[in-house]
Amino acid sequence: MYPKHIKKVRGRTLLLGAVFAASLSFGACAGDQREKDSPEAPVAIQLKTPEVTGALDEGAGGESDPGSPLDLQRNTGATEDVVAAVVPPLVVMNVAAVVAEEVYVAPAAAPLGQSGVLTELDNALSNTRWISNPTPWNRGRVGRYKTSLDREADRAKSLAARAELRSFEGAPPVMPHSSSYTAGSKTCLDCHMEGIQIGKKVAHPMPHVTMANCTQCHVEQENRLFDELLVPGNNFSGDRPERKGISSMAGAPPVIPHGTLMRTACLSCHGEFGYAGLKTDHPSRSNCMQCHIVER
Amino acid sequence: MKLNRRNFVKAAAMTAATAAAVGEVSASTSILSNAPRNPVLDPPEDGITYHKAPCRFCGTGCHVKVGVREDRIVSVTGDELAEVNKGLLCVKGYHVGEILYGRDRLTKPMLKRDGKHVPISWDEAIDVIAKRILRKPEAFGFYGSGQWTIPEGYIANKFTKGGLSNNNVDPNARLCMASAVTGFLAVYGVDEPASCYDDLDEADVVIMWGNNPAEMHPVLMSRIADRKFRGGKVKIIDIGTRRTRTSDFADHYLNFRPHTDQAIFNGIAHLLLANDTYDKEFVEKYCNFREDEVKPSLFGVPSTFEAYKDTLAKYTPEYVEELSGVPADDIRMLADLFGNRKLKIVSLWCMGMNQHTRGTAVNTQAHGIHLLSGHFGKPGDGPQSLTGQPSACGTAREVGCLAHLLPGGRLIAVEAHRTGSEELWNLPKGRINPVPGTHTVKMFEEFCTEGGSVDTIWVQVTNPAQSLPNVDKLFFNKNNCTDKFLIVSDVYPTATTVEADLILPAALWVEKNGVFGNSERRTQQWFKMVNPPEGARDDCWQTLAVARRLFELGHEGMKDKDGEFLFRFFDDNGKEVESWKWEHYYDVNVDKALYSEYRGFTFMKHKNVAPYDALVATRGMRWPVVEQPDGSFRETRWRFAGFDDPYVAEGKEIDFYHSKTNDGKAQIWAREYEAPPEMPDEEYSSWLCTGRVVEHWHSGTMTSRVPQLNAAMPGAYVEMNAKDARDKGIRNGDSVRLRTRRGELVLPASIGGRGEPPVGSVFVPWFDENLLINKLTLDATCPISKQPDYKKCAVEVTKAVEE
Q1: Could you give the C-alpha distances from B308 to A18, A19, B295, B296, B311, in angstroms and in order?
Q2: Would you place residue A245 in the very low, low, confident or very high pLDDT band (cuts 50, 70, 90)?
Q3: What end-to-end distance do the CA atoms of chain B give, in Å?
Q4: Across chain A, which distance is largest between two alpha carbons, in Å?
Q5: Of the given ranges (A83-87, A184-188, B254-258, B677-681), which has the lowest mean pLDDT?
């Protein structure tokens, strides 16, 4: 198989695909606490529709993934040739490859715009990297996650880490890294569409529907041109509410202790690539708001 | 009923509804009743109160909801009820609350004595200013800003033009959109865009002319880009002199040689005529032709279609390619788009066309191709000039804070406009000086000249030491002159306050009441939400207090024709309030009184702004706002269009009712391409362009004190093309020396960064007060608008060898 420290699963938006891919992924991902034969597994097998199988047969490449934002083929009807020319596959392990008895498929090319200096090719291709019809991030995964040994401590730690990236509760998080958003590239979605974990570094998937201009709201916190940062003095102290979801009575599902503006994909924080201590123990239930209501 | 917050909101909503039913809007209740409860940020038990306000930064005019707890801002969120931004903000907007809390806020008036700033009392400061003005009122200049609120600009304008009989009032907006103003005047006979942001949701093609909204107007850029991102059909064309983040969103990026946008417009017009694809009916019904007589002028002389055609004859696609570097086929592509009546086309521009030594001409050309092709006056179809400051339109333009204007689009040079203003202000006839004052560049030229006609300047809400072009000549030269006195009202130490003789600490944004006007004619109001730091006071009060002090010292101009003080405010019982005393300033809403007085000026040119209370109840309204038979007020989205603008003559589809030719027609101008005054040569072999970045707003006074924004963009840099850098042996981060005929500066190089200038040109952002790029820029101006060109001059680029 492939190195254990890379945990990356291409997600799917079609319900069939989502359930299927997610269930398969637990075999693929460092499945420490998960069992390959989770109770949902038989369901997944039933979902092996011709469509999905077809995708598997295609083998590698982003184009086999119906949920990928880079998949022009399914969403726009572009021909396969066009897709291949326009969208280089990402450097990720493909679920389908794993299923097909651990066939490793090498990435065809590095993503555009990551080579630092622009090439003419980058310029020529940049406008063709438009993503049409991205699907809102709203998908469920099945399976069970590791339960924190000390959930409260993990939760406190996670909330503190989360707060560090926000000027106040509700502010869009800053980028804790520099932006590789150079002329001719659009690379945020490569990690933040689905989420990715490399070592201990986690890129959370977006909690909101996909929008075109990431740097409108999210500001990078590193500038590679400058070594020394003079921190300006500022006495601003943002709102940091102490909140926790409580249940109205014993056994009732806890209410959502925060609002849902720009936070509609619960699994962003509470799912696989979420925060320790905040992850749900039942991600297979895809309709969160069926049981959890916004505290109002 | 226990009146907790939720019940209170309900009760307030009911009150407001009742009030609305009888045609009134209650100021005290409508804020809360209109504030949507944001589920993220509005939990009942957090003790946070939310108020609406337009953002402090750019001309987009997003509405933010400001969360206040215990007299401090604790959170900020986009306002979902705001049509402009629909709940979203940009990186600056989300952190706008932090600009109030930089640790080095100015809190004491400080007078320069023996080269040092020493604290003095407010009374003393006001007295110093009044006596300085009294000594030579005609040598006083008020240098304001497109960040002035409408009441701040209005009181400064009335104080100087109506009180001191001195027309030396000009705003920094002269550096920002003066050419847009002259463009609108020359074409439509009246200032400001006919279109609005709704067009961005409708257009099939959006063309950015030398414009980078992805960084400068991010919310508007996203409005277009998100449409496309979700699979909508919109073609984005970026026509620029350097690749930017905007180019990344574009279907086509067309790189042109600086200044040749003039040739591109003519090339498109040439093809529209040659291919016979121009809109004959539209031109016939709604357009006249115009040209300069000999020298460039604002209104020129009448011309003909044939003369226009003759002027365009030589602008073949091949000739335009030769001038501009844009391939002839791309010029044809643009002409085909404009020639297609089925498409809806929006042109956007901002500083690229305004900061241009032929700024007025190129603005008229932009309007011209839209008129010629009939892409005008329909939703999604029309030219849209953007502004950079939150109230460049509202204050600088509409209130007439320019040296040749009076409020509401009146001209100082026109006698009827002066007497009309004197009547509205209840002044004796002849009080207003008939000679226009000094425009920005002239004002500072005089100020920096020994014995010049301006010896005292009061700067409010702007930072000329950083923002004027060629600052050594136009600003720092004052230090070589005797008897000059610079007064600066600001919130933080800036490059300008360092040089000031008197510094006045000011209140900022929601520390005071205010009204702004954005790029789409939308007037927006907010209330004071938190107190300014002890010692800082409203700019509007500062002007009022000086006026009162002059009145007490016997200055005749501070009296109206009945001998009363010019600025009087009354409480609900009709009793006069001593608003010039700080402790009484908030006894009545001075803002509302001044705004309501100003509103009387807005009807003549059909720029009717909404009543104050209507603004309180809404997220701004676009003028002309006209009262309906039922007593409600209706805004206008598309001016001059019969289906929407109530001032269009009955039965007409389009009516330019302020036409210079008095026939309801707009003017299409014949303008030749003219080379810029300074171009690269052997010694200074590159182009230098300056501009902004998304993280910082203008001179960075506010945004550089926000840790998140500062971390992203701590300093200025010089952006270079990779080939140029390779040829000169420059690597990313290396120190590069830039030298122009005016000055030199060393900056780190940025190669392959967020923008990419073509070979032979460099770009430097101007927000960094430690690296004043305006020591290098050119102070040549458009001959008509007097706006300088920051976008091009010749520069020598060399690797700075470490010593």
Answers
A1: 63, 66, 17, 16, 5
A2: confident
A3: 77
A4: 63
A5: A83-87
The band of A180, judged by pLDDT with boundaries at 50, 70 and 90, is: low
Strand ranges inside B399-550, DSSP E? 405-406, 410-411, 456-460, 485-490, 502-505, 514-517, 522-526
**Choosing among B708, B754, B769, which should be mutated to test the A contact, i.e. which has the most A CBs within 10 A?**
B708
Q: What is the DSSP letter of B468?
A: S
> Which residue on chain A is closest to B215 by alpha carbon?
A216
Is residue B92 annotated as a catalytic residue, yes or no? yes
| Rounded distance between C-alpha atoms, residue B267 and residue B307, angstroms | 16
Q: Which residues of B235-251 are buried (b: 16+ CB within 10 A; e: fewer)?
A: bbbbbbbbbbbbbbbbe
The reply to whether B478 belongs to the active site is no
CA B660 to CA A103: how far, in whole Å?
A: 75
- Predicted confidence band of residue B21 (pLDDT cuts 50, 70, 90): very low
Catalytic annotation, pick one of B92, B528, B605, B791: B92
Percent of chain B scoring above 90 in pLDDT: 90
Model confidence at B647: pLDDT above 50: yes
Beta strands in B647-788 (DSSP E): 666-669, 686-691, 718-720, 735-739, 744-751, 761-765
Are the beta carbons of B464 and B145 closer than 8 angstroms? no
Answer yes or no: do A295 and B43 touch at CB < 8 A.
Answer: yes
* Mean pLDDT for all residues in chain B: 92
Q: Would you state the pLDDT for residue A276?
A: 85
Number of helices and strands in chain A (H, E): 10, 3
In the block, residue with structure tokens 């959006």: B206
- B246: which 2 tokens? 């905007």
Of B67, B90, B733, the CB nearest to A216: B90
Q: Are B105 and B74 in contact (CB under 8 A)?
A: no
The single residue listed with the structure tokens 């279609």 is B305
If you average pLDDT over residues B658-674, what whole number do you get? Answer: 95
Q: Say what percent of chain A tops pLDDT 90.
A: 7
Q: Which SS3 state, helix, strand or coil, does residue B736 take?
A: strand
- CA A180, A184, A190, A192 torsion-angle sign: positive
Work out the number of other CB atoms within 10 angstroms of the CB of residue B583: 7
Contact B735, B693 (CB under 8 A): no
* Mutual angle of helices B261-274 and B328-339, in 10-degree steps: 60
What single-letter DSSP state applies at residue B418? H
Mean pLDDT calculated for residue range B604-621 = 95
The pLDDT, as a whole number, for residue B549 is: 98
Give the model confidence (pLDDT) of B716-732 as tens digits. 999 999 999 999 999 99
Nearest to B435 by CA among B186, B168, B784: B168
Ramachandran quadrant class, B323 (left: phi over 0; alpha: psi -120 to 50; beta: rest): alpha
Q: Is B793 helix (H, G, I), strand (E, B) or coil?
A: strand
DSSP strands (E only) in B287-361:
287-291, 301-303, 345-349
Write down all domains in chain B, each with its CATH number in brackets.
Answer: 5-101 (2.20.25.90), 110-176+391-588 (3.40.50.740), 181-386 (3.40.228.10), 686-799 (2.40.40.20)
Which residues in chain B are contacts of A126 at CB distance < 8 A?
247-248
- Tell me the shortest Cα–Cα distance from A41 to chain B, in angstroms: 34
Q: Are A262 and A218 in contact (CB under 8 A)?
A: no
Residue B7 has pLDDT above 60, yes or no: no
Q: How far is CA A138 from CA A134, A173, A203, B199, in A?
A: 11, 20, 17, 31
Q: Is B176 a catalytic residue?
A: yes
Which residues of B fall within a CB distance of 8 Å from A231? 707, 710-711
pLDDT grade for A40, boundaries at 50, 70 and 90: very low
Structure tokens at A227: 């070594």
